[in-house]
Every structure is written in C-alpha cells, then in structure tokens.
Amino acid sequence: MDISPVFFYSFAAVAIAFSGMVVLKKSPIASALSLVIVFFCFGGLYAMLDAHLVAALQILVYAGAIMVLFIFVIMLLNIDAPSLDTMRAGRLGRFMIIALSIGLLSLFIWAFKETTPPASVGAFTPQRIQEAGGNTRVLSELLFSEYILPFELTSVLLLGAIVGAVAIAKRRST
Amino acid sequence: MEGLQTIRPELLSISPEQLSALRPYFIIFGGTILAMILSVVRWMNPKWPLFILVLATLFAGIVDSFRLVPEAPLTLFNAMMISDGYSHLFNIVFMASAFFTVMASFRYLDREKLQYPEYYLLILFAVLGMMLMVSAQDLIVVFIALELMSLAVYTLVGFRRADRRSNEAAMKYFILGSAASAVFLYGSALLYGSTGTTGIKEILSFIQTHPTSMTPVYTLGAWLVILGFLFKVAAVPFHMWMPDVYEGAPTPITGFMTTGLKAAAFATLIRLLTSVGYGKGLSITLQAHLHDILWVSAVLTMILGNVVALTQTNLKRMLAYSSIAHTGYLIVGIIAGSGNEMGYGPVVMYLIAYAAMNLGAFIILTVLSSRDDSGLGLHDLSGLSRRHPWLAFGLAVFMFSMAGVPPTAGFAAKYVLFYSAVQANEIPLVIISVLCSAISVYYYLRVMVYMYMRDPSGSPSVNRIPVWSTLGIAAMVFLTLQLGLMPGKVVLAAKKVASSL
C-alpha cells in the first residue's frame, strides 16, 4: 500500500494549518468551522489508508453531527469574543503555556523519530480485508463478536449520559 | 496466507459459569433499569420505593460478589474482562460505598429539597462504571467504563444546581477530567500502535516476547496512560481540581468520591501499571522512569496534602487535603508493590480501611452540616461532645483512624503498607511518609480538641439525626474498629487477590 505523497502532504498541511486556526481564532464560530476543515482532512487521510468506512463515518459523525451540536451550543450560549477576553492568561501565563506546548511537541517529535515502525504487520491488511468482504463487513462482524463488550457498554454509557443530562437540564417544579 | 476469520463461534455464547460470574454486574444494571422505570411512574411518589429498590440492588450485588471472591479467575467476552478475586473484592468496596452513600443521602436530599430520582440512578451508573473498570482487561473497556463512572460523578458533583460553588466544581471537574481522559486515550492509542493490541495482558506478553518493541513511543504511551490515572487519584501535580470539587460537591457525594472513585482509580491504576511492564524487570529505563515519576509524585503529594491541610478551617476542605495526603501513602504502596512479598496487597488493604473511615466521617459531616452544606467550619464543632456525644465519638474514631492511631483500621493499614515499603528497600520514602503522617496527627487531633475541649459558641443547633445515617455511622465505626483489632483476615484476603495480578 502506498500513499500518494502529494495528497498526504496537502491533507496534512491543511489539517495542521486549520488546527492552528481553531486555537488562535477569536470568534468561537470561526474556530468551530476551522475544526470542520480539520475533520475533512482527517477523513481524506483515512480514505488514503484504505479505511473507507472510517473516512465516511468521520465525515458523517464528526464533520456532520458533532459540529452541528458544537455550533448549536455556541449559538445558544451566545458567546462573543469580548466575554472570552476576561479569561485570557497574563503575559507570564501565556509564555509558560507556549513554552510547555513547544516542549511537549518536541518530546513527541523526538519519540516518533526515535521509533522505528514495527516489523510485523498486523492481521488486518487492506488486501485481506478485501478478501474477507470489505471494510464494512469486517468491521461490523468484529463489532458484534470480538468487540461485543465495549460495543454494548457504549450504549450503557450513552444511557448514563442521558440521565445525567436530564438531571442537569430538567426544569424543576418547586 | 489464510483468510481473515472475523467471527469466532466460541465468542458468541456465554457459558453458565460466565453467566454466574457476571451476575453482580447484571444485578446492578437490572436495578438501574428498574429504578429508571420506577422513577417515571406517575401514579405514586417514587421516593420510598426507589430508595428501597436501590438499597436492595446494592445489597444483592454485595452478597453476590462475596460469593465470587474465592472463585478461580475467569475471562469473559474474548478476554476483555476478567472475573477474579481482585475485581470482586473491589466491587464489594464500590457497592458498599454506594450503599452507605445512598443511606446518608436520603434525608440530606429531603433537607436540601433535591429529592430527585436521577440522584440514585447516577450513583448506580457510577458504581457500574467502577465495577467494569476494575474488571476490564482491555484499554477500550477501561476507557468506556472510566467515562461511564466519570460522567455520572460530574453530574452528581453539580447536583445542587442552585448553588454557585457546586456548579463551579462540576464545571472544573468536567473540563479537567475530560482532558485527563483524552490523555489516557492518546496513551492507549500509542500503546496500541507499538504493540498491536489493546488487551492489558496481551500488551504485557507482547513486550515480554519482543523486548525491542519498548520504543520511545511505547514509553510515551505508558506514561500518558499512567498520567491520566494519576489525575483521577489527584496525585500532585494533578491535584488542583480536588479541594474545590470536594468542597463544592454535595457532602454525601464527596464521601462517595473519596471512597468509591478513589478505590476504583487506584485499583485500575495497579492493573495498568503491571500491564505496561512495571515491576517485571523488563526494561531498566521504563522501570526507572516510572519509579522516579511515582517517587517524586508520592513525596510531593504527601507533603503538600499534609501541610496545606494544617491551615484549613473548613472540615470538608481539610478532609479533601487529607485525601490528597492519603493518595500519597497509597502511591508509596504502589511503588513498593513490585518489591515485597505482599505484592499490592497492602494497597488493597489500605483502600478498604480508608473507604471505611472516610465514608463514616462524611456521613457524620452530612448529618452535621446545615442547609446548603454550610456550617462545617471547625468552630461549628465546638462542644459537639455535649450536643451529640455519640456523633462526637464516631468522628473521633474516624479521625484517630485517619491519623493512624491503634486500635483502628488506619493504624493496621498504615503499618502493613509501610512495612511492605521497608521490605521493598524504600527506606527514605518510608521515613518521609512516617514524618508526614506525624504532621497529620496535628490537624486530626485539632478536630478532637474542638469537639471535646471547647465550649459551644453561639447558639448551636441540635440536628435531628436520621435513622439511616445512624445505621451507616454505626456500621462504619464497627468496621473501622474491627479492621483495627483483627486485621488478619482482610490482610490475607488482600494479599491473596493481589497475588493473581
């Protein structure tokens, strides 16, 4: 499997640039919309890795559903840039945050540079997945056999989250 | 090359033994669903039936788990979960902690006008999350269970919606906790990337057979996974959230967090630490790194927790800092865990003892607090021995226990823990711990001075003590003294379950 370098670098560059925008933009809506672009770029990268289902889900779920939710929340809360200004860190704080981020980033770059990719390839190569009936089929079969416990637990988690949301949001008749 | 086999028939059925091992989880989940249905019926007030149902569920779960503790380990769901003595012993701790929290909450919720069914549901969800987390054998399951537990507790912390501090605490806890979860998740992704598996046991066996795969990325992943959990247990420097959250949360929930949540986080931390190869003599670098990180964190945690606790005048805040200090002792136990004959047994024992005494203390605080969780300053305790002699006696027992004075649970647990650290040749660490716990005697005893030697100030109100809370306090006093006088059985049980790790 080879990834076309042109596509890889363009997707990666756009993703990094827009991730920067998410952090740096002052208006929350602009940040959220930059995040959409980042999600699309990730979708492109997944597609190039032959993970078409994950790419499609990335677009549908993240760029679609979750982003809509984000924007809803931002609009409902009506946050504008000035109200966020009070939360900005002072000069020293900002300097420390930047230094810490750069330090962490260089630690990660160093770790990934020092690590050679593992020699053995896992069981799920694109070719074998093709033979077994394609991404969607393999994923769904795994989800309902090998990964049944996490899959079902996710529903319990969502149920718990709903109860929590009700507890916070319900109007009480007192 | 043979084709992929994605459906393995043996995974599609559950044997009777597996079903029986899963029964406590089903009991709690079934109880949750029943309680959910009960809380939406319109033809009656669900308050009493719900309370009884929740208590019955938890009680049934505890009884069932006792049956399972001595059973042989059994893996479930494609080895994503394990049912062994370790997980079931901790399940008992979680369920018992929830049981007594619910008991203490009943009248509290009445008083605060918060008697809503969601409160009990969320406690049950949190318990289910803890139980699954401690029995998980796979990083994915650990993560989902962690989120289940955390989401429920975030909401419980902010349950007093009309109160600013409660809201602030919930928000802080939610944001920082989500960040910690993200750190944990990223660490798991790195571990998966370097070993090709998310199974806890599989990661260990993979690095045992492929020593060269302990790359920097692997080490980074191991760190991040551990750091995510150090946040949950509030070890310094990840402790900043804790005092505010403990102070802002409803008092019974604070008790639940210091006992159940803390035990769950520590129990899982131990599983994860052993799984990334700590204490297995695999890689000198990894061993030294993790050891040093934990060492520094333990020392800072103990010193900061104890010293700051000295200056606190609010009981809830004082207990929050003392909880940080106890986290420090527990990390000492974890450091020593790989180098002594008891293994991680002392940590297990300490968590049980800590749960008993802290739960008791927080039930008493719940009873003593006046509306909106105020009236928990040290001055409000003045002359408590005359107003409520039995409450004062109970609180005195718990304070002595936390300070580590015999014949209480705290003494037995500390003794076993420090002894294991001496065996593991961590002498400087033991000296620091003992000095720190000497400092702690000051602030615990100060509570006693206020209760027994000061005259009541102002016009102290005499609270009515709910019968449920009385039962809870009595049980915890009994347990604290029992564990202190005859710790042998629990120490042995703890050693036994920890040896299977």
Tally of DSSP helical segments of chain A: 8
Report the end-to-end length of chain A measured between terminal Cα atoms.
64 Å
CA-based shape of chain B:
globular
User: What percentage of residues of chain B falls in helices of 4 or more residues?
Assistant: over 70%
Average of per-residue pLDDT values of chain A: 84
3D structure, described in words:
- The complex is a heterodimer of chains A (174) and B (501).
- With 174 residues, chain A is an all-alpha fold.
- Chain A folds into two domains: 1-83, NADH-ubiquinone/plastoquinone oxidoreductase chain 6, subunit NuoJ (Four Helix Bundle (Hemerythrin (Met), subunit A), Up-down Bundle); 124-174.
- Chain A is built from eight helices and no strands.
- In chain A, helix 1 runs antiparallel to helix 2 and helix 2 (28-48) packs antiparallel against helix 3.
- Chain B has 501 residues and is mainly α.
- Chain B has one domain (17-499).
- Chain B has helices at 16-21, 23-38, 47-68, 85-111, 117-135, 139-157, 164-195, 200-209, 216-232, 241-248, 251-275, 284-310, 315-337, 345-368, 384-387, 389-403, 409-423, 427-453, 467-485, 488-499, and strands spanning 74-76, 81-83.
- In chain B, strand 1 and strand 2 form a beta hairpin.
- Chain B starts with 15 loop residues before the first helix and ends with a helix.
- At the A-B interface, helix 5, helix 6, helix 7 and helix 8 of A face helix 5, helix 6 and helix 9 of B.
Short description:
The complex is a heterodimer of chains A (174) and B (501). Chain A is mainly alpha-helical and 174 residues long. Chain A has helices spanning 5-24, 28-48, 52-77, 81-85, 91-114, 126-131, 135-144, 148-169.
